[in-house]
Amino acid sequence: MNQDYIIPNEWSIIEDGFHKDHVTASESIFSIGNGAMGQRANFEENYSGDTFQGSYIGGIYYPDKTRVGWWKNGYPEYFAKVLNAPNWIGINVNINGISLDLNTCKVYEFERELNMKEGVLTRSFIAELSNGNQLKIFATRFLSLDFNEAGAIKYSITPINFSGEIEFIPYIDAGIVNEDSNYDEYFWDILQIEEQKNEAYILSKTYKTEFHVCTGMKVGFALNDYEIILDKETEKTEKSIAFKYKTNVKQGDTLSIYKYGGYTQSMNHPKENLIFALEKVLQKVAIIGFDNLLQKQKEAWAKIWETADITIEGDVKAQQAIRFNIFQLNQTYLGEDSRLNIGPKGFTGEKYGGSTYWDTEAYCIPFYMSTKDKHVAKNLLLYRYNQLDKAIENAGKLGFNSGAALYPMVTMNGEECHNEWEITFEEIHRNGSMIYAIYNYVNYTGDYSYIPEFGMEVMIAVARFWQQRATFSKAKDKFVILGVTGPNEYENNINNNWYTNYLAKWCIDYALENLQVLKADYKADYQRIIEKTKFSKNNFDAMKNVADNMYFPFSEKEDVFLQQDGFLDKELIPVDQLEKSERPINQKWSWDRILRSPYIKQADVLQGIYFFENEFDTKTIKKHFDFYEPLTVHESSLSPCVHSIIASKIGMNNKAYEMYLRTSRLDLDDYNHEVHEGLHITSMAGTWLSIVQGFGGMRNFDNVLSFNPQIPKEWKSYSFKIDYRGSTLKVYKSHSECKFTNESELPVPVFVNGEEKIISKDELVIIS
Ligand code: BGC
């Protein structure tokens, strides 16, 4: 049974009633972030029950020494982890000397709401303590989009049936650890703890990586919303600082604490200035004040929603889910800093180390490209461009040469830090998605300048890798790629994974094609790049030879491309014939059994067909879907979206909807029973794709933007907007009509259901 305690609501995620069993799940679901930092929805006050504490700062990581049973040459020395950062949200509360702790007191009327429209988390409840004292608590918290180094909390208490002493103990604590630390190491070195009137700062640095971070808090008080001053006492430990404020409060009066807090860090400030810089930030937000800051927060989120929102009429759970996905993506990455990226768990948990995967290029870029200005997607591409030297070094460590690059499967700074051999060494298809993302960007935005300025160098380096990684098979009289793991990680060390071979050939062809364009039209860039990369005619010929003679496994009998050599030797029993108790197979079966089975973790051949759909006719696409989907267990969060999009394309509407539900409410309904570990941020972009490319049928091949809108029977209508080459296009689809509106100056040429339309400024085009 999946979890079902989240109340359906169009704009909010709501927990009604206190669900003790779901505290860690809720901490993930109600997470907040502002692109620069984020935190799980831990309670401000002490909680003695099961909880998973987490605050994270974008870009701050620790190289946790690799832990494996059997060391293999070439393994990365460490796994880069985004660190659990010092906690600034804590406010312990004592009422007449009794600690407020939801694990030990009686809790009534508990409600928690994540208002996605405004980017605000609230929590209210009535607590009854062991002495019978009842009090009403209301807490509001947000991480500011305007000042992305700061967050704010207003925490109010009203005694219901007594008058008595309330003590607030706001604190900051740098004594935190990562639950997933390999050697139970402590990652933070505390350098300085500084106290001022109602402010405190802890300067710390990470061991090894030496990121310096200042964590701070500034507090103030109000009684019935009128500012009051309270005396404080200070309590310090080696790693934390707490202030204690006590006062008597009459029954029915409301005492509030305002706490502003956050981080400054050495990626953005000289390390000597970090305390001073944070003082300035916290002073500024305190002067603006909680209510005004909150108002600014609402306005900033309104701006994001203006283009990013998708509306769904007639299905409130679907509406809630798509907004949740869009909201979490924006909380994770806003695109202004090319040193940051999108970890599969964002700022909501430790798993996957907060590092960058191929998920960004394969899934997230289209979302950011269509819902934000193009510089955002460009920043994601530049992230990889800036790590090209490391990718060349990485390939060098594995024996490749002459500027061949292998981008890492998992990285924080460009170095590979994944240490399962079948993924680190073999899951090389990720290299192709770097080039696919460049193609996607240029094709969608029309900004070709990216290729001469940056992209060409990456393409040459990746094409070199493929040329060297392919070997010639005399038996087949073709180039083959041996010993790989495809996107389907339930097969290791296989030969000729169709997807990898296809992508390798495509990468080389695309690189060579663009070299020709540069040679003809961007002569100075061409010259610079040829010299920088020492690219020769021999290189060109060798690459072309590999691409022209690449081998693709194919079955005449089944008339499908084979996932890999020998795939048909498996017992091809469809997934629906497996006992329910056997699934998920990654939790129920031994690894060797999984490897021998035909079961597919996520789209593999179908991932290629999705990327290069324009190269296959619908009949071929359907044949491959019919062959592979029944063998797919969708045990990666990245799987259902690709299947939903293809199912829409081939008219399998029920399947498309089933897969859509699975991707969109994966975390809200906890399909995989793991939401307590954090949210699946990167697959959320897949949910967006399932609507826009799936139901909306948006495609963008060869500089042509097209739509083929359909609507699930369960919905009344849906609408989405895209930013396309500087214009904002709104698409609305109901069962009876489809409307396109151009909300900007430039006319937009589109194909709708195969027919060309030019949509001019403010024009409404209705297609029945
Ligand atoms: C998937 C990978 C993905 C990773 C991070 C794995 O389960 O198989 O394709 O990159 O998760 O999301």
Structural write-up:
With 768 residues, the protein is an alpha+beta fold. The protein folds into three domains: 9-306, Beta-galactosidase, Chain A, domain 5; 373-551, Glycosyltransferase (Alpha/alpha barrel); 696-768, Maltose phosphorylase, domain 3 (Sandwich), CATH 2.60.420.10. The protein is 32% helix and 25% strand. The chain has 20 helices and 34 strands. Strands 1, 2, 10, 11, 12, 13, 15, 16, 17, 18 and 21 form an eleven-stranded antiparallel β-sheet that branches. Helix 5 packs parallel to helix 9 and helix 9 packs antiparallel against helix 10 (450-469). It is globular and about 85 Å long. It starts with 5 loop residues before the first strand and ends with a strand. The mean pLDDT is 96. Residues 344, 352, 357-359, 487, 489, 601-602, 636, 638, 682 line the site of beta-D-glucopyranose. Beta-D-glucopyranose is lined by residues 344, 352, 357-359, 487, 489, 601-602, 636, 638, 682.
Shape summary: globular
Bound molecule types: beta-D-glucopyranose
- Number of individual domains: 3
Number of E strands: 34
- Count the DSSP helices: 20
